[in-house]
Every structure is written in C-alpha cells, then in structure tokens.
Amino acid sequence: MTLEAAVSKINNINWKNERRFTKGSYFGYEYLRRLSQFYKMNQIRPKSPAFSNIPYLLGDTEGDSEFSTFYNKDMLMVFENNQSIKNIVVWYLQLAKYADKCPDGSQFLSVYEPLINLLECGGEFFMNNAGLEIKNEGYYPFNNWFERFVDAEPHDINYL
Questions:
Q1: What pLDDT digit, counting tens, does each position of 100-124 carry?
Q2: What confidence tier does 61 reach under pLDDT thresholds 50, 70, 90?
Q3: Which 8-state DSSP code applies to residue 154?
Q4: 3-class secondary structure for 126-153?
Q5: In terms of C-beta distances under 8 Å and separation of at least 24 residues, what long-range contacts does 13-19 make, across chains too?
Q6: Fewest beta carbons within 10 Å, which of 32, 62, 75, 149?
Q7: Integer Cα distance of 98 and 19 in angstroms
Q8: Helices marked H in the chain — which ranges?
Q9: Rounded Cα–Cα distance for residues 111 and 37 (Å)
Q10: Can you give the pTM of this predicted structure?
C-alpha cells in the first residue's frame, strides 16, 4: 500500500509546470535536517546528500528497474533535464516499495518529502557533490552539512 500511495503522490504532481516556484521556504533546509536525523538514528556514517539513497542504505538491493512503468511523458522530460529530481523520485518510490516489505522503512519517507513537496508546489532543485540548490530559494553547501543540520530546529513546510 505504501508504494501505491507514493506512486499516486508522484503522479499527481503537475510535471508540465514550468518549475517557476518563487515562494520563500525551507524545503532544502528541512530535507537536509531530516536526512541528518536519518543518519544519526541509524548510526550510519553520513554520505553526501546527493548520493543518499536511503533504501539502499537500509539494505534494499532490488533497485529501480520497474519504476519506469509509473512515469508519464512529462515526468520523463523533467528527468531527462534534471538527474537530481529523477534520483529523489526514484529513491522515494524505492523506499515506499521497501516499506511495503519492511514497514519500519516507512518512517523514512518523510526524509524525501520536503523535496517531493517542493515539486508539488512547482519548485525545482539541483544537487551535486558541492551542494543543493533550490531554484529561486537558496543554496545549501554540503561542506560540513551533517554537523550543521543534525541538531537544527525543524521548520514547518506544510503551510504552502
């Protein structure tokens, strides 16, 4: 059921949206804060957020081969131009599938939700080894990211 809900959430995103998000928010901040909490809680040495595939870190080795059946042409166009968005969507779906087998995994879906919520609002983001850029919002460098976010206060991102 978790995968079904995640697929529905992804498919309800307006992928034709021109990705012109201009509202100030804390989507990037909250993603990094929640990711640092995941690493702390599971006592896993932090990786770069650009390579933080949570299902893989939890032991899921099945990968993402079947998820392409859930993608529409508008989604594929976005993925073609933005590997960061594709990775987050794939990891989110992969984690939802993993949670169907191992229900404890469902608590970690909230890690990816700030970036999924950003997409729902028409936002766009880019990640590489250096940092996370939320278009028209801000830039979060990855140097010492874990130390900066592990004890950070949460921000409400549900008001949009």
A1: 999 999 999 999 999 999 998 888 9
A2: confident
A3: P
A4: EECCCEEEECCCEEEECCCHHHHHCCCC
A5: 13/75, 13/116, 13/119, 13/120, 14/122, 15/72, 15/74, 15/75, 15/77, 15/78, 16/74, 17/122, 18/122, 19/78, 19/122, 19/123, 19/124, 19/135
A6: 62
A7: 29
A8: 2-11, 27-42, 54-57, 73-81, 83-101, 109-120, 145-149
A9: 9
A10: 0.92
